[in-house]
Amino acid sequence: MRRCFRHRHLHGKALLYQQTRQLRRLISRDAAGDAENNVFCVGLIHNAAHLNKKVDAMAITDWPAGERPREKLLQRGASSLSDAELLAIFLRTGVVGKSAVDLARELLTRFGNLTQMFAASEKLFCETHGIGQATFVQLQAVLEMSRRALQEEMRSGDALNSPAAVRDYLQLLLRGREQEVFMGVFLDAQHRVIAAEEMFHGTLTQTSVYPREVVKRSLALNAAAVIFAHNHPSGVAEPSQSDQMLTDALKQALALVDVRVLDHFIVAGTGCLSFAEKGML
């Protein structure tokens, strides 16, 4: 089956190339006044367009087995797939004239990357031809399951011994948000996660954070330590002077009730900056 398809595919390309050359020769001979040649030109153009569409819109099932996204994932693992191939598996099917991979590439081109696509509203996401509300709902369900899985991983052990899980969770929760969000991950004396909460919401450029409210919440949860995080919708992960001042104020306020600030993350775009790693705590 594979050889048969390749033969048909190459034959179609060769025929398209041959007809294109014929068309160029006719044009070069100035066939404008020749009715018979004009009719032939129209026929060539129609056939060429039809062949081109037929060749380019081949189904994924006609691809070599090793190049189909599903088979490729099973053989080589998910990490071997491109963003478009992974998204194509999620989409499952394409539309008339476009395979699932073509549709996935169109989505990624439109939004720029997976992060921006995940953060898109239902209206924006469904504006792409072939993408409906059901696909949007499925995507949101997958994202929420990912968040919960990471939260379970954080809760199951020492947050300081699994910093990657904490970082991944915060990135998944905060990146792509259009307004600044400030959150706290509250820990017990063994640094196990008690709760992870969004505490304050702001505008595109700033969030008002009240240390008194953070202290109250820490006491209510009987927390021994806390990790803070907020996002920068601008995509720049570098901390501002106000970020540093806020962190210092929170440390001082929480120290009065014996609650340690272990870290403060800034999530921006695909990056995530740690105050602790930068020596800023």
Compute the average pLDDT. Answer: 79
Number of strands: 5
**What assembly state would you assign to the polypeptide chains in this entry?**
single chain
Query: What's the helix count?
Result: 11
List unreliable stretches of 5+ residues: 1-13, 48-56
Instruction: Report how far apart the termini are.
Output: 63 Å
Strand order of the largest sheet: 2-1-3-4-5
In CATH terms, the superfamily of the largest domain is: Cytidine Deaminase, domain 2
Q: Please, could you describe this protein's structure?
A:
- The chain is an alpha+beta fold and 281 residues long.
- The chain has three domains: 2-56, no CATH class; 64-131, no CATH class; 159-274, Cytidine Deaminase, domain 2 (3-Layer(aba) Sandwich).
- 53% of the residues lie in helices and 13% in strands.
- It contains eleven helices and five strands.
- Helix 1 runs antiparallel to helix 2 and helix 8 packs antiparallel against helix 9 (163-174).
